[in-house]
Amino acid sequence: MDRHVEWMCKGDVIRGMFTDPPSPSPNLAIFLHGWAGDRTGPHRIFYDTARSLADRGWASLRFDFRGRGDSGGRTEDASIRSMTDDAVAAISLAAEKGFRRIALIGICSGCKAAICAAAMKPEIRDLVLWSAEAMGGLRPPAARLRKGLAALRTYIRKLAAADSWRKILRGQVNTRMVRKAILASESPDSAEKAWEAEMLQRFSSFSGRILFIYGSCDPERDISGIHYARFCERRRISACFHTVQGATHSFYSLSWKREVIGRSVDWLAGNTTHTA
Question: What is the percent of the chain where pLDDT is above 70?
């Protein structure tokens, strides 16, 4: 069901993985990972969601942004803008392969890339955003410090896992990205902040639908979730908000993970009705 794929973006190779359902499908979900993540998602949540979507007749594409994982490019060149370029290139690849309905599933910083890509590609009608960061003028100045502290707590928890130590000993941990996640986040410069604001303005006319999912213990819920709710309400964008009780930013619990996957797959497949 899984097959490797690669394509070029801005002179660098992007590598990813298609997951196909048992029968050919016109529907595709493209996954966009977070700032220091990769195409599997935290504790393989992307991989497991792709499997669940395949059971519901959806294909999936998971890939590493440039500067991360198996893709080319330099880590120090990574930005929300470069991540958006990668997402747009993935959407174009999917269209070339004949997929007619393309949804984006993002987590953390990947949600910014999803919003920007949807602003640029009107064919995107469905967004599933987990622990979405606020962008542009929606993000208050204190958010950066709170995010850094949350990232530090997340990595401390990871150190308790044997698998994390195996990756460290094998040299598979990108320490530069971890350090940047804790100390500086994506730290956009003035030009990128202006670009984010422009993309958010373009996104104001989005006519599709969005599912936001936050953990009740994730600081992003109170920082970003409230601002996105107001933004969508004022612009009459169809948006549902779901809170996973007790969950943290990356949903590091089997029960939280199952709830996120179940709600997302049901909402995307359209077999159940959801309320805000």
Answer: 79
The DSSP bridge partners found for residue 126 are: 103, 209
Quick one: DSSP state of residue 225? I
Please check whether residue 80 is in contact with residue 135, taking contact to mean a CB–CB distance below 8 angstroms.
yes
- The DSSP output letter for 68 is S
Q: Tell me if the pTM is above 0.85.
A: no
Instruction: Report if residue 145 sits inside a domain.
Output: no
Whether the CB-CB separation of 66 and 14 falls below 8 Å is answered with yes
- Structural domain count, the chain: 1
Residue type, 91: I
Residues 146, 37: Cα–Cα separation, whole Å: 19
CA atoms of 4 and 17, how far apart (whole Å): 5
CATH of residue 40's domain is 3.40.50.1820
Q: Does residue 223 lie within any of the structural domains?
A: yes
- Give, as one character, the DSSP assignment of residue 75: G
Q: 4, 5, 31: which is closest to 113 by C-alpha?
A: 31
pLDDT digits (tens, 9 = 90+) for 146-165: 555 555 566 566 666 666 65
Cβ-contact 104, 127 below 8 angstroms: yes
For residue 96, being part of any structural domain is answered with yes
Q: Going by C-beta distance under 8 Å and a sequence separation of 6 or more, which residues neighbour residue 17?
A: 2, 3, 4, 5, 39, 61, 62, 63
Domain that holds residue 89: 2-140+190-269
The verdict on residue 241 lying in a domain is: yes
